[in-house]
Design brief:
Helix content: 25-40%
Strand content: 25-35%
Structural class: alpha+beta
Number of helices: 4
Shape: elongated
Largest sheet: 10 strands, antiparallel
Radius of gyration: 28 Å
Number of strands: 12
Length: 237
């Protein structure tokens, strides 16, 4: 009875806690019931044999429930691993330490171009800092571009998977190579003034499924300094 009670609590946690947190469908009562059957080995027998038979059926039911729950937990574990990977990869950091910024220009959208003097769509945010200021990856990912590229100047593209990509432009130096895996908080370049630029700054872009979106929604600018520092320390290791 205590074993069945424990299994019942596990099943309840599975359906009403783990699967809800991970946005998974809970197992239906039919599936649960299907996992609780047993095989009758005696059709008609004495009371003693019937008691043994009932004990056998209870053991078979417990085995079936445990087997079903093992399958469920394997599915939950896989979903959890996928969620962890997505959370680690999703852009979720300011690419420059807030203390090193001299100006934060959140002009995403149409603006008057400072060089060409015409109205153009500005696909990212400009973070002004001194030349040589460290630039950090904002999520785990794979470097797909790390080179000089026209108006971007020295630029890095990072593919984070799950549809996300980030771009870091006008760098003075590139500290990664194409094909390299990077982690959130890892040093990838230094602020510069290369390409079409009027002064040292980082031009930072976020794309989702090949469409530009406002990076401000993916920058934890209110992240406590100690927490930011810890991310950088962990990445450097």
């Amino acid at each position: 009875d205590s074993t069945l009670s424990t299994l019942g609590r596990i099943e309840d946690e599975d359906d009403h806690h783990y699967r809800i947190l991970l946005n998974m469908e809970k197992l239906s009562p039919e599936i649960r019931k299907g996992g609780s059957g047993g095989h009758s080995i005696v059709q008609s027998a004495t009371a003693g044999v019937r008691e043994i038979s009932e004990g056998y059926k209870k053991m078979a039911s417990i085995r079936s429930k445990i087997s079903l729950e093992n399958q469920s937990f394997r599915a939950i574990r896989k979903r959890l691993k996928d969620k962890e990977g997505m959370l680690a990869s999703r852009p979720a950091l300011q690419p420059i330490d807030n203390r090193r910024l001299t100006r934060f220009h959140p002009a995403f959208g149409m603006r008057l171009h400072p060089v060409h003097a015409d109205w153009r769509f500005h696909h990212g945010l400009d973070l002004t800092a001194d030349t040589g200021t460290p630039v950090y990856a904002t999520g785990d990912g794979l470097v797909t571009v790390a080179k000089y590229s026209g108006g971007y100047g020295n630029v890095i593209f990072v593919n984070h998977g799950y549809g996300f990509e980030t771009r870091y432009a006008h760098l003075s130096r590139i500290k990664v190579t194409e094909g390299q895996k990077v982690t959130r908080g890892e040093l990838i370049g230094l602020v510069g003034n290369t390409g079409v630029s009027t002064g040292p700054h980082l031009h930072y872009e976020v794309l989702y499924k090949d469409k530009w979106i406002n990076p401000i929604h993916f920058m934890y600018r209110d992240l406590p300094q100690a927490a930011f520092n810890q991310i950088i320390r962990e990445a450097s290791r």
